[in-house]
Amino acid sequence: MLGIVGGRDRFVCFCICAAAAISGAAPRADAQEWFRIPNFSYATDAELAPIDRTGFILSPDFSFSDELKLGGSGGGLLSDPSGFAIGVKAGYDYQVGGILIGGITDAFYSWADGGGYGFKSDLNYYGTIRGRLGVSLGRFLPYATAGYAYGGMEVTDIATGASDSKTLSGWTYGGGLEFVWNNDITLHGGYRRIDFDDVTFSTLPAGNDTLSPAIDVFDFGFVRRF
Q: Which end of the chain is more exposed for a tag (fewer CB within 10 A), N or C?
């Protein structure tokens, strides 16, 4: 069934399936805890429970200033797509003493697009599957992260209306900082570099049809732990 729907539809299906799988795999949290509205008030050190980062995590994410850099032989025919993205992050963290080890996946719906010399490019979605390693410093947690990246990009010939959509694949690396806001919420901000493999689009002229996409992601959000 997924083979007959568009790239954005496949992305939506992926998010729904991932959310269902994660929500059904958390023995540590009952249904009430998953759907309880979190407290957003700041907690002082005295009000804060002992910090334990072990458990499942779920986070709405926002990326502000996505700009896909288009290299390769066809990069000069297109302006770099830019825009913003909204997504979700889920995973599991395990803390041993002051060291945190985790696995995480995220998926973003992107509004990054760009024009060019008779062509239009759109970054439809992107995401990562990665590990992370952090150091607990009280309420703060600096961390490094790296792993696999994927995405979906479309290039359209404006004159003919023909378009070609391709799945992107590559690697990501970066880091970030978390801060425990209260007993329910942890704030986070981070940076990731994503380097996708070269990809060829049939809508670009022969000899100038290869792109080498890369993106710098600056994202922020809040984390719920269960």
A: N
